[in-house]
Amino acid sequence: MPRSEDVTAFVEEHELSDSPNIAVVRRLYDSEGDPAVAAQIMILVLERDYDSINMGHIATKAGLARNTLYNHANDKRTLVPQLARRASLPLTEDVAVIAARSAWSAADRCGRSSR
């Protein structure tokens, strides 16, 4: 299983520290579930085109047997959104807390954000 240092080394080696995806890589790495799978999917997405990635690539990168990876999801189109939802959950919760504290109504917030 890759360690956090492995992800950091990859980021530095490939000069990706300014990429907007790096925060997602780190958040997925620290999320529930198998961090090896999460980290390796995001690294693959940074390395190559999403359409060219298959479950075999993900399994190999994560150091898993392909059958083990299928315990997580039936295909990458299921696995990647699961990880994205998990990664976005803390942000969604933060936004909900901020919105709940706002003095503006929901309609006002929507109207003001579009101006």
Automatic annotation (TrEMBL):
Signal peptide: none annotated. Pfam families: TetR_N (PF00440). Keywords: DNA-binding. Residues 31-91 form the HTH tetR-type domain. InterPro entries: Homeodomain-like_sf, HTH_TetR. The keyword DNA-binding applies. It comes from the Bacteria. Residues 54-73 bind DNA. This is HTH tetR-type domain-containing protein. It comes from Lentzea roselyniae.
